[in-house]
Amino acid sequence: xxxxxxxxxxxxxxxxxxQLKDAGVHTVLDLARLDPVMVxxxxxxxxxxxxxxxxxxxxxxxxxxxxxxxxxxxTRSFGHAVLxxxxxxxxxxxxASRAAQKLRLQNSHxxxxxxxxxxxxxxxxxxxYSRSTVVPLRRPSxxxxxxxxxxxxxxxxxxxxxxxYAKAGVMLLDLRPADLIQQELALDDEVADPGGSRLMQALxxxxxxxxxxxxxxxxxxxxxxxxxxxxxxxxxxxxxxxxWDGLALVRA
Length: 252
Hints:
Elements: H1 14-22, H2 28-32, H3 36-42, H4 45-54, E1 72-82, H5 85-105, E2 108-119, E3 130-141, H6 144-158, E4 165-173, E5 176-177, H7 196-210
Antiparallel strand pairs: 1-4, 2-3, 2-4, 2-5
């Protein structure tokens, strides 16, 4: 501690570090010898916790796993302007499916689905339009079919012909743990799909093993066909740092 400067402590920025040195605190050992109450009063509760940690008191818990997200979004800018509803439906289905997969990874359900579309603000010569809408789910779900259906209903409501759309996205709201299920009375003939969770597990397993979009919903379009809304990725960084097949071959 005596050999380490106080500015090297995590959480001690340039401004606070200068103030500490002006107060005669030059090393980590000097910081550890300070009175935590005085540190809180003169600087902040964050620095007080740092001092207590240096003195051996556990104040900052270690997160072994990141907390579940409160919102999940999937948005993309299109590689080319999109004018027709069918292309937007393909894009929104793709975005909703990816968001649903992320939702299942953290074992959560969504209660609402937000869909938005907009034109490019950088093309002043084009007519400008931006709109979003939220569609609530009758039952919180992480099923791609339910989420995509809600997203497409929202898209149908906000779509206006005659605009050159440049971006769209889907956001999942009102997230809650999947094991917290609100029961309801069977007042009609509609019942929850008992095999839906197994179907989604099979869908995720196939796509994880054989590659993204090996299996997808029909409204996402046919696999392998060029899609107007896809991003421009001619200058995308190759995967040679994570994929052996991406390494360049050098021959004499």
